[in-house]
């Protein structure tokens, strides 16, 4: 996926975060006013406050070094650190330009990861991405290629693993617990009960005499 590739390249660049920031020209987002000019107002020049753009940039880079983040998540972090909204927007715009902030790549990577590790269905993925601030149109575009049949196979694998710890229980109890389990993963009732019924029918303990 092109977006995921862009994000991988961006994350690799964070191994030398400060060097990368300097190379990308993120050190001063106000070109008409250098750090020297800001600190040359009198005898106390050397103790002038830090450049707010540099402070915001460091906060963002530290967040990205810990893992991918959406733009909204970074905006929230900067707001929590009392960064000026205009400064935050300018820094995030520049980082978006160079691929360090990329909601499209984030969404693609997040969907792939959560499908593989947690078996989440499209409904749950949609909710989680929206909670993380990914725009609705990006969420829709990312989820549109999910194959319903592949999702059903994913549900079957989840049920098979879950059943290992539920042997010996009454069929009704198994059905209720498995359906609730799939619902938490974002699967609809129709798919859930079909998959659960098929799995239970295949168990010797529920075989017909």
% residues in beta strands: under 5%
- Taking all Cα atoms into account, the compactness measure Rg is 25 Å
N-to-C CA distance: 51 Å
Q: How many distinct beta strands?
A: 0
Helix proportion: 55-70%
Question: How would you portray this structure in words?
Answer:
The structure is a single chain. The protein is mainly α and 209 residues long. The chain folds into two domains: 1-37 and 49-146, no CATH class; 148-206. Helix content is 66%, strand content 0%. The chain is built from twelve helices and no strands. Helix 4 (52-66) crosses helix 6, helix 7 (103-118) packs across helix 9 and helix 8 packs antiparallel against helix 9 (136-143). The longest helix is centred in the middle third of the chain and has 16 residues, at 103-118. The chain starts with a helix and ends in an 8-residue tail after the last helix.
Topology readout:
Layout: H1 2-13, H2 17-23, H3 35-38, H4 52-66, H5 71-80, H6 85-97, H7 103-118, H8 122-131, H9 136-143, H10 148-163, H11 171-184, H12 189-201
Helix pairs in contact: 1-7, 4-6, 5-6, 7-9, 8-9, 10-12, 11-12
């Amino acid at each position: 996926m092109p977006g995921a590739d862009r994000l991988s390249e961006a994350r690799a660049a964070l191994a030398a975060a400060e060097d990368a920031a300097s190379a990308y020209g993120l050190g001063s987002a106000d070109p008409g006013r250098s750090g020297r000019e800001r600190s040359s107002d009198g005898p106390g020049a050397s103790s002038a406050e830090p450049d707010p753009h540099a402070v915001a940039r460091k906060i963002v880079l530290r967040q990205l070094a810990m893992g991918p983040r959406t733009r909204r998540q970074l905006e929230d972090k900067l707001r929590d650190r009392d960064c000026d909204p205009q400064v935050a927007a300018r820094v995030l715009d520049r980082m978006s330009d160079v691929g360090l902030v990329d909601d499209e790549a984030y969404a693609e990577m997040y969907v792939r990861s959560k499908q593989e590790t947690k078996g989440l269905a499209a409904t749950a993925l949609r909710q989680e991405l929206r909670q993380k601030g990914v725009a609705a149109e990006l969420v829709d575009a990312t989820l549109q290629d999910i194959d319903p049949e592949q999702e059903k196979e994913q549900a079957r694998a989840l049920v098979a693993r879950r059943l290992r710890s539920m042997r010996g229980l009454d069929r009704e109890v198994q059905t209720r617990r498995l359906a609730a389990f799939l619902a938490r993963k974002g699967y609809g009732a129709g798919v859930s009960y079909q998959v659960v019924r098929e799995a239970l029918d295949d168990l010797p303990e529920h075989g017909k005499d």
